[in-house]
Model the fold of this input.
Amino acid sequence: LFTAHNPAALDGLNLLDPEVRLFAIDRNSNGHTVINRLHLTPQLADLTHTYPLSRLWLMGHLGAVPHV
Done:
């Protein structure tokens, strides 16, 4: 288990590896913590050819983007 607040840590992950799992931690509208496993969809896989995972997170494609 590894946790980080730096999006660059995402760039070392290989989501094609079945042993690698990425979870997004967020809060719902009631303020409760919600954990969602990120699955590599065909659309997301296509985007990874153009952008690193850190950029996809910043663009909002992975969830768990803070609302500041």
